[in-house]
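User: Teach me something about this protein's shape.
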Amino acid sequence: MDKVEKSASSFVDISKLNLTDFRNHSFTSVETDKKFVAFVGRNGSGKTNVIEAISMFSSGKGLRGAQLSEQSNIKGNGGWSIFMEVKTAKGITKLGTGIGSSQMMEGKARQCRVDGKFLKSSREFTNYVGIIWLTPQMDRLFIGQRTDRRKFFDKLVCLIEPSHEKNIKDYDRLIMQRNRVLVDMDDKKSWLDKIEKQISKIAANILISREIATNRLNKIMDAEVKNNLFPSAKIVMREELGDINTRSSMIEIEAQLQKLFFQSRVKDRDTFRTNVGPHRTDFTLYYNKNDMYAENCSTGEQKNLLVSVILAEARVYQEINNGISPILLLDEITAHMDNERVSNLFEQIGDIGSQTWLTGTSEHLFDCISDKTDIFNINDGKLDHNAV
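Assistant: First, the predicted structure itself:
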C-alpha cells in the first residue's frame, strides 16, 4: 500500500481552546502551536475534562457520553460553552458549542457554530475536523458489554463512512417502532411489512458500511502496524443474521433481511425485542501473533490492540481526507506502558502527523517528546502559569 504523502499544506491543528463553566473549569484558555499538548496533574484535577471538551466537536455526546447537565460547572450558572480555533493551510476556523441554563431546562440541544454560523447538529463539525479518542475506560472493552463494543466500532465506521451515523439512528428508531407494533401484529401486518421494508434497506447500508470500513482498517493494520511494537490485528464481526450472505447485491441483502425479520416476528413479539439484525452484531479483534481473540488476551495486550486500531483509524482517515490527519485525544495512554513502547507510539503518531492531546500524572511521562510538546499543569480546573 502506498503511503499518503503529507505536506505542510495538509494539516488541521487546534491553536486555541477556551472552556467556560465546563465541568470543573470556570474558565480555562489554552493556546498552542505544538503537535503534542499534555496536561499533567493528580486524578480529579480536570485533565480529562479538557480533552472531553475537544471531543464535543465530534458528532454525539463526546468521549464520556454524558448528559449536557452533567457537564455544567457546579459553581456556574448552569450552562457551559467551549470555543476552539482550528488552524489549517487556508487559515483559522472558529468553532463553538454550548448551551445556556434556560435552554437546558427546556430540554433543548446544545448550539453548534462555525465562524459564527449555526449548524443543524454537531455532526457537521466533522466537515472541519476529525477527532479520535482512547480512554482508560476502553481498556476493558473486550470483556465488557457487547453494546459498548458495537458503539466503539460504529464510531470508527462513521469517520470512514459519514452516512453511517444517520443510518444507525434511523435504524434504531424504526426497530423501536417495530417492537411496539409487534404487540398487535395480527391486526397490523401491512404496517409491519412497510416498517420491515424500511428497516431492511437501512440495515443493508449499515452492513455494507461496516464491511467497507473493516476491510480498510484491516488492510492498514496488516500493512502498516505489523512492523512496530503494537500488535497486528484483524477486526472480526460476529453477526446474528441467520444465513444472509453479506457479499450479495444490495437488493438481495435487503430481500434476505426482510425475510429474516418476517420469520422472527413471533419470537420477537414474545421476547419484546428484535432478536436479529445489525443491532445485534458484536465486534472483536483477532491477535495474529498469539492466535487468539482479544477477550482472551491479557489486559496489557488488549490495550495494545486498541492502540493498533486507533492508529489504523488515523491512517485511514488520512487516506480519505487528502493527507489531513485527525486530532487524537489520548487519556492516560502511557499508564502501564513501558518506555520503549511509549516512544514507539509517539514516533508513529509523529509519522501520521496528528496533533495529539494527552493527559498524565507526571511530566516525565512525556520526556521523549518534550521538545515538541506544550505541557500544562492542572490543579482543580486551573492551569499552572508556570506551564512548560
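Now, about its shape. The CA atoms of residues 188 and 332 lie 53 Å apart. The chain is about 35% helix and 20% strand. If you'd like, I can walk through any region in more detail.
User: That's plenty for now, thanks!
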